Amino acid sequence: MKNILVEENPHWQGKAQKFVKREKLSKLIELLPLKQIITISGIRRCGKSTLVREAIQHLVESGTNPHNIFFINLEQPIFLEHKHNPGYLNDIYEAYLKLINPQGKVYVIFDEIQFFEQWQVFVKSKYENGNIKFIITGSNSSMLSNDLNTLLSGRSLNIHLDTFSFKEFLDYKGINYSSELNRISNKIDIARAKDEYIKWGGFYEVFEIENERLKKELLISYAKNIIYQDIIPRYKIRNSEVVERLFFYLLNNVTGILNYTTLSKTFSISDKTIKEYINYFEDVFLLKRVDKHHNKQKEQIKSTKKIYALDNGFLQIAPTHSKNLGIALENLVFNILNQTGSDLTYIKDTYEIDFLCNKVLYQVAYDISDDKTRRRELRPFEYFKNMEFQRCQLVTYDATGTIGNIKVISADDFLLDGVSS
Predict the structure, then answer these.
(1) Nearest-CA neighbor of 139 among 223, 215, 20, 21?
(2) What is the C-alpha separation between 170 and 172, in angstroms, rounded?
(3) Among 161, 194, 222, which residue terminates a domain?
(4) Same domain assignment for residues 11 and 155
């Protein structure tokens, strides 16, 4: 085990690493001095491990003894036979203490902690009895919310990490967007990056690959690994093939209305089971449902849902992949709005509005150069204008301006400037 510990902690030997800086790093650094456990949640391969390694580098540069920082990825094959034994976490920690003998406060970082059953018991015991700052990462939202709240109520603070934002993607490409002058000067490069981002999303390893066939293969492997590592074992599902088929079927229907009855007939399982499986997809950050807006919360919960993918790259691996660019743009706008953490719904009553967020109505239309298309996309705003909503925004591929009281915003401006407050 000693070799593994040394390999996982290159900072012990003064080895610095280079990373693409993530926007959530400042939030993580802000939480480091606090006693509470920091949990970092997010889909597999979104960069959780890299984020905590950036935090390690910050701690070392700020004067923390490198030997007092312990990082371990718990999904390594060497730990496989011990995953049912939470006591083995203590063995790993004791091996670190014997090897390094740190003095004073220790930072313990457990990466992909959901691999171990009953891990919360170990973390709680050390939290209460030792001078330890825990940072733990996980790829399942239920694990880091429900499980932690049961044993560690009030003792943890969460950071959710998504795949790379468009700004982080531009940083990776070295395209400067920090001022209006830079955006004008780099307009062509930003436009090309936008096209790539709309199509392939924000997984770092995906946009590092040039070959589109390999990009798709990698995204398929991501999806299947999540299904077979994070869903099937955790929920002890016997018919794993149905879960996989359902996920890829839903990718064909992204931005559409969910019909549980139809899905139940298609897959020959109960609508209750369909809902459970979709819950699991949400828990591991693959898909997300959006409620239909209603003034009564109970009715909103019961409402028909729309389904979206939590990274645009997944649209490319749908079995009957749609080349409808409007779907890709709407899914991308969903992800930007979803990341605000605000209550996000859609509206449907004679006409349909794609999104309601922070009392702002958002409609998505890839191209409004055609008069008929433009009138069709603007008509819902007119229908709902007398309700309590404050502003209207029409997000397009590249058109900007205003039409009456409606702000027309291009996709690149929306990606760079974010959501209206």
Answers:
(1) 223
(2) 5
(3) 161
(4) yes
